[in-house]
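Reply to dn_fold:

You asked what the input looked like. This is it:
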Amino acid sequence: MSELSVRHFYDELAHDYHLMFRDWDASMAYQAEVLGGLVRQSLGAGPHSVLDCSCGIGTQAIGLALAGHQVIGSDLSPVAAARAAAEAAARGSRLPAAAADMRQLPFKETSFDVVLCADNSLPHLLSGQDLRAALLGMRRVLQDDGLLVITVRAYDETRQTRPTATPPQVSETRDGQVITFQLWHWHEDGERYDLEHFQLIPAGNTWHVRVRRSTYWAPTTPQLTEFVAEAGFTNITWHSPASSGYYQPVLTAQRAPSAQ
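and this is what came back:
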């Protein structure tokens, strides 16, 4: 899956992304509360400087900005990043956001207290080389002892069962119900899959059917832990949905201080 393909996927999805949520603003607040709590546990009350390097349309970044943190967003999709900035402004907040590849973050060294990569964005990187590049870049822009926060799907069991679809999600809009679901087509290696993302959007007496396609890697917990450790992070901790209240497993880790 090329960079242009992933960018195209999110450029197309940016306008409709919020339709996956029953209440997008409520989800922003909930996610900011949980993720902000994990940040407080490691770094104290703050506010903190945060880079959301896969900000999408701002689901996590806007919530954290509204909670008082100084947040900058970046995303491979310029359409998504522009919408994130606009949505933040519409809610009385400020979210500078730019188009950027997480493997080549355009920020100075040691610029942030926190780097966030949420919503299963990291598995768009399909090789160990790309994953290492992204994690080393995240480490580079973090201050010593700064916090890395990654959220991903629970792939350990998924790699064993290889599901072919996700259950439909139904959200209410003023025009009716929106139905979202995914089809997964596994590669022979059993680690990667092609995803078809369907949205059925009401349009009078009919539906608009929108289909977007992308490819993911499904790294297991031990695999991702090893990559994060190799990139120079310590205190690597996994927080399950049951323990954190978040909808995906969350990895937190701290940048090991640079050698003097």
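Residues 24-43 form the longest helix (20 residues).
Hope that clears it up.
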